[in-house]
Amino acid sequence: MKHNSLIVLLILLIFFVISFLTNILGPLIPDIIKSFELSIGLAGFLPFAFFVAYGVMSIPSGILVEKYREKPVLLGAFFLAFAGALLFALIPGFSIALFSLFLIGVGMAMLQVVINPLLRVAGGEAQFAFNSVLAQLFFGAASFLSPLLYSYLVSNVHSGTETSSVITLFNQLVPANLKWVSLYWVFAVTALLMVAVIYVVRFPEVELKDDERIDTGAAFKDLLGNKTVWLFFCGIFAYVGTEQGIANWTSQFLQTYHGVDPATTGASVIAYFWGLLTIGCLLGLLLLKIFDSRRVLMLFAGGAIVSLLAGLFGPKELAIYAFPMTGFFASVMWSIIVSLALNSVPHHHGTFSGILCTGIAGGAVVPLIIGGLGELVGLKFAMLFLLITLSYIFSIGLWARPLVNNATVKSFRELFE
């Protein structure tokens, strides 16, 4: 039991690190654009380089886990993340940034495939639902904290006031005009520490259940011929595209249209976007006990559309609050879309999950489209593209026909039983 508890804690730490490395790109984009003199269109290739790795590696990662087991895949994933972060920290440049982000993205895709089955075995099936929610809270906490760390580093590195030995070290490692690169040194050290921790920890034997295996043969072919599979794949694609479209372009939008400093207020807005997304998960759990998940999905998608429009066309004071609220309304979308998807197909759930995970590539394509449109019509109108993805998510609540509906309570008293 003690050993398993250690593995659960390690997995929660992995969730934290995945989020820490994944969701910092949004606050960094204004700095990257300024430092490398990029157009908005070129900047759109930054999230593309990272999230396209999910489309490339999600299914191969499942095959690697079955062949080599969990520990080697985890070690390989964090070593790739370390290599990517260190490469960019040593040689900061736009082309290196694209390759670095792709390497880190491949590592993160490999981690995502490993950790859920491992969490089920380490924590026990009876505690799996609770531990999964706990993992999402760790994921959200890191997304909230990483923009704040970015603000701290940018405010203190090369500021003339050496507040700590770490800041003094960063003053020597990073150029004065690229203070934000210090964050990639943090990423490199973090990933290397995770390699060391995972190397010394002994892992339990994980026997994959049928609904966790990825079959690239008959099951894969069967699912690809199913229209419902494609519709839900597009749902995941639209959700991750929406999430990353907002997270990656909000800070740049606020700087362009409202003169907001991306290193302080802009980073705080993104931090609260992720913070409210995490808090919304808790409210979503309660609502799913009371209402049909399809109605909850439509309600939250509608709220996200209203918040997005308020952020884009409202004054600065409203935008600063409206964009984080889109995170709150996005909070339940992933879990509801995935559960509706798996409940709409009677078999091959492991392979279906692998196909759904490739939909995370929406985080690559949608920000790239927004960047391209931004070159033509300006960022404000380019971000209206998110109305298409949010409308598709809303439509899922209308056409989804799950074989099993989510369990709801008949009375308030049942909530506590």
Q: How would you describe what is shown here?
A:
Helix content is 78%, strand content 0%. The protein has 417 residues and is an all-alpha fold. The chain folds into two domains: 1-208, MFS general substrate transporter like domains (Growth Hormone, Chain: A); 215-402, Growth Hormone, Chain: A (Up-down Bundle), CATH 1.20.1250.20. Helix 5 packs antiparallel against helix 9 (182-200). The longest helix has 32 residues, at 227-258. The chain starts with a helix and ends in an 18-residue tail after the last helix.
Summarize the structure.
With 417 residues, this protein is mostly helical.
Radius of gyration based on Cα positions: 21 Å
Count of β-strands: 0
Shape: globular
Question: Stretches where pLDDT falls below 50 for ≥5 residues?
Answer: none
Tally of DSSP helical segments: 19
- Please describe the biggest sheet, giving its number of strands, its sense, and whether it closes into a barrel: none
CATH topology of the largest domain: Growth Hormone, Chain: A
Compressed to H and E, one letter per element, the order equals HHHHHHHHHHHHHHHHHHH
Count of structural domains: 2
> Helical proportion?
over 70%
Question: Please, what is the CATH homologous superfamily of the largest domain?
Answer: MFS general substrate transporter like domains
CATH architecture of the largest domain: Up-down Bundle
Present the secondary structure layout.
Layout: H1 2-22, H2 25-36, H3 40-43, H4 45-68, H5 70-90, H6 94-123, H7 128-156, H8 165-173, H9 182-200, H10 218-224, H11 227-258, H12 262-290, H13 293-313, H14 316-330, H15 333-342, H16 349-358, H17 362-377, H18 379-382, H19 386-399
Helix pairs in contact: 1-6, 1-7, 1-9, 2-11, 2-12, 4-5, 4-6, 4-16, 4-17, 5-6, 5-9, 7-12, 11-12, 11-14, 11-15, 11-16, 11-17, 11-19, 12-14, 13-14, 13-15, 13-19
